[in-house]
Design goal:
This protein is an alpha/beta fold. 37% of the residues lie in helices and 19% in strands. Helix 1 packs across helix 8 and helix 4 runs parallel beside helix 5. Pfam families: Peripla_BP_3 (PF13377).
Length: 289
């Protein structure tokens, strides 16, 4: 049976207005803990109890988690969807369960969603590298069946186009959204022709693998190879050189997710919203400037 974590207790003088279920993979991303804390803080401000359920980033477990949350009679669901299947989301929409997709936005307009803006953010990273006179800019891509990674790949191509650089498949490798996959993708790109002088990495988890592979090959990041990424890892500012990145607005995402769910409960007939919040550019030394 799927286990649900106990609801977060509110302050003694705070009345409980709603009970929300949060279904997500607790350890899928380096910022998962930060996102949970942001949702809990926002829930507490509105008098909402939060029950957590770990999906393990698995579609099958996600379905079981949602069944358990509904059996627990939560008033609404905040879901960080697993990759690979829309069946769970389709079921929630069909049954009229108040639902907000969080962080991993989907390419649909029938459910409320909130996450980071991807296209212009990655475009800006590419243009930053192009402004440093890089012409061979590689891209470590994420999972192909996830909208956020499709958008980041589009941002990469847009950035090249706006910089007058021709896109070539030889400079793109799939990192499978994992450190190991990204390490293999980095090795492939650096061993190919043309070899990139700079890399854009599509997620925090993959940045770990890219850094590892560069170190293993004896490549000096920021000197031999410029690296920029999407997502601000806890360690990104402490490594040498520190990582230039787009930092996701996790606190704002958690707050807005709770607000959207409350709005959906208050007005079930309102038009679904897709809210993309702008990440923040953090300029450090890994890009070589």
């Amino acid at each position: 049976m799927t286990a649900l974590s106990p609801a977060l207790p509110l302050w003694e003088d705070t009345p409980v207005t709603h009970r929300f279920g949060v279904a997500m993979a607790m350890h899928a991303n380096p910022y998962s803990g930060e996102l949970i804390r942001a949702i809990r803080r926002a829930g507490r401000r509105h008098g909402c109890e939060i029950t957590l359920a770990d999906t393990g980033d698995s579609v099958a477990e996600e379905a079981a988690v949602i069944r358990a949350l509904r059996a627990d009679r939560v008033d609404g669901v905040l879901l960080v969807p697993a990759a690979g299947d829309d069946a769970v989301i389709n079921g929630l929409v069909r049954m009229g369960v108040p639902t907000v997709l969080v962080d991993r936005m989907a390419g649909r307009n029938d459910v409320d969603q909130v996450g980071s803006e991807n296209i212009q953010a990655v475009c800006a990273l590419v243009r930053h590298l192009a402004g440093l006179r890089h012409r061979k800019i590689g891209f470590i891509a994420g999972e192909e069946d996830m909208t956020i990674y499709e958008e980041r790949a589009l941002g990469y191509r847009l950035g090249l186009g706006r910089s007058g650089i021709r896109w070539t498949s030889q400079l793109v490798a799939g990192g499978q959204s994992t450190p190991g996959g990204a390490a293999a993708a980095t090795a492939k790109l650096l061993d190919s022709w043309p070899s990139p002088t700079a890399l854009v990495v599509a997620s925090e988890a993959m940045m770990i693998g890219v850094q590892y592979e560069a170190h293993r090959l004896g490549i000096r990041v920021g000197r031999d190879l410029a690296i920029v990424g999407y997502g601000d890892m806890e360690w990104a500012g402490r490594v040498n050189p520190a990582v230039t990145t787009m930092a996701q607005p996790i606190e704002e995402i958690g707050r807005k997710a709770v607000e959207l769910l409350l709005a959906r409960i208050t007005d079930p007939e309102r038009r679904p919203e897709s809210v993309r919040l702008a990440p923040r550019f953090i300029h450090r030394q890994s890009c070589g400037c």
